[in-house]
Input
Amino acid sequence: MEVILKETIDTLGREGNIVKVKPGYGRNYLLPQQKAVAASPANIALFEKDQAAIQARITEETKIAEAIAKKLVGTTLIIAMLTGGEDRLFGSVTSSDIAKKLAEDASIEIDKKNILIKEPIKELGESNVTVKVGFQTTVDITVQVVPLEETEEA
Output
């Protein structure tokens, strides 16, 4: 089944692309969610007419992604966590923790789904984390986990 994407989908392509998908995926997800339309001659003609507007949106998305990527390059986040014996963490550092810290420190709002952690961070030290900032645009940042200094109450 061929469909025309109405929005950019990371696993398929950019807005306005004609892509071939399995019939069930197209019928049951893309079309009902209005993320795509069937690639009929009428719809193709309509999208070709709107190609300039689509290209302008894609260019704008790319500029925003590149600006965020430039801001994130070389970023080191320091996250303080409670630790137990042998420098093991109670729990782990999650993508949600990293997203919250990015918002606080760098004033960059990144959805936690766009933070790719290869394996759970359960120890103190540095780890590399990949952040998706746009369509096929990723940046590696460093997350440094340090022990939480407990304040003593008098």
In short: The chain has a mean pLDDT of 87. The chain is about 30% helix and 30% strand.
